[in-house]
Amino acid sequence: xxxxxxxxxxxxxALPAAAASDVANILLPCDSRYQVLSPDGVQVAVRCKDxxxxxxxxxxxxxxxxxxxxxxxxxxxxxxxxxxxxxxxHDGNIExxxxxxxxVVKRWHASAxxxxxxxxxxxxxxxxxxxxxxxxxxxxFAESPKLRATLPSDFGGIMDCAVSPDGKVLVVAGGDTxxxxxxxxxxQKTLENRDFLLDTFALAxxxxxxxxxxxxxxxRITVLDAATAKQVRQLPREAGSSVAxxxxxxDQQIAAIYFDDAGEKPPHELIWRLSDAKVxxxxxxxxxxxxxxxxxxxxxxxxxxxVRISQSE
Amino acid sequence: MTRRExxxxxxxSGALVLTTSLSLPALAAEWNESEKKRKPTPYCELxxxxxxxxxxxxxxxxxxxxxxxxxxxxxxYGTRGEIVPDAKVEIWQADIDGHYDIxxxxxxxxxxxxxKGAYAIxxxxxxHYPSRVCQHVHFLTTAPGHKPLITQMYFATDxxxxxxxxxxxxxxxxxxxxxxxxxxxxxxxxQRSVAVVTFDLVMETV
Lengths: 313, 206
What we know:
The complex is a heterodimer of chains A (313) and B (206).
Chain A: H1 2-9, E1 20-27, E2 32-37, E3 43-48, E4 53-57, E5 63-67, E6 73-78, E7 84-89, E8 93-98, E9 104-109, E10 115-120, E11 126-131, E12 136-140, E13 146-151, E14 158-163, E15 169-174, E16 179-183, E17 189-193, E18 200-205, E19 211-216, E20 221-225, E21 231-234, E22 241-249, E23 253-260, E24 268-273, E25 278-283, E26 289-293, E27 296-303, E28 306-312
Antiparallel strand pairs in A: 1-28, 2-3, 3-4, 4-5, 6-7, 7-8, 8-9, 10-11, 11-12, 12-13, 14-15, 15-16, 16-17, 18-19, 19-20, 20-21, 22-23, 23-24, 24-25, 26-27, 27-28
Chain B: H1 3-13, H2 24-36, E1 69-78, E2 88-93, E3 108-111, E4 118-124, E5 136-142, E6 149-155, H3 165-168, E7 181-182, E8 185-188, E9 193-198, E10 201-203
Parallel strand pairs in B: 1-9, 1-10, 6-7
Antiparallel strand pairs in B: 1-4, 2-3, 2-5, 5-6, 8-9
């Protein structure tokens, strides 16, 4: 997934900014088309074209930490409260650090393959790791890192995953186009959905945990019942594009970033209202990151060597 | 071949270490095994445009399609050099303009190579997908008892390589092995020219 997002953001051009209030304008330490915001809004991890990773504080842009290009950091994830940061490396290592002091808390070798996906559980004591073309792994790292489960797919590793707000259900989108439901108490697969012919790149639970939003190469957001894995509804297609990123914020609003399947136009963003499947807003400012901070949608846009972090009105 | 010669060849090939007490037939068998062994085909990313339930067809092009005709074929092997007879090979690629068919199944196929492990398709040389550096064809190969093989095949004639794929194959950051760049032979008759490429697929056992 990180690769897909990176590929998507690599296509970006600097476009006029959409209406939104500025949070910060930060000078980038490098040429970057892909950043990750911490959920508490106090940090941004900047992935550079040279494969180094720079962690900057928001809003002052102070550099807190630099991970050099070797070993290459392939993916970054923050814990839900923003206190921890996990980095997946190209050499198959995973590192968990305190995002406050940037102290490395744990580091372990998870796979012979690059780590391309990472997702924290709500309690920030476990995370899901997706090594390239390999089964998903669940690691518990409160003590010495321990592999709690491997979650097989038919092929292709994982594209994305989502944990229910109560931490009891994990949904994994495999490269095999299948969605797999797991009980996080037993790690048994409880449900699956094989209705998708194309891959899913983005998954998100609604805040009440009752629905799972699915976006991918079929150009639309599909709403599934979290309890049955069955389709509830589909939002209209955004023809010629794929859903790469999904965030739920505010009163059941969905922010979706779409990339152009033909690879010719920059990505764009649509804000959907879930209750009536209406588009509430569109942005063509080509966001380079997106996240929900304090219930509000934050996004980044890069203009030259400056990243503008803004909050949607 | 004398016993001594056989022994020397086995040692050179790495097939024999401290096994000088083996009989000639055993050594010959060892030698044959060593000769047959194959390196697994390198993994290369699935990409975002895989689509399940591709049609069973070996003809991916349709009348009126522009582009250089492509005859792509190969054999599915295991790493011991054995044929994998019950493999399924899924192939997908962009059209001449570099576009993938998301809504339908143009330039997508599912093949069952059968007991000889051989597959062959007729297609066109794909165009350049705008956000990728090189022209490529995607493969997903599955078979009972084997790890799924996901990879991509590249063309040595791709202008990106400037005639020197040995030196320039890393210009596409997704090409992690020179082995994935295949020579292209142009066969011509009075009516048309065809790019002929062979790409064997070597699967690892589970």
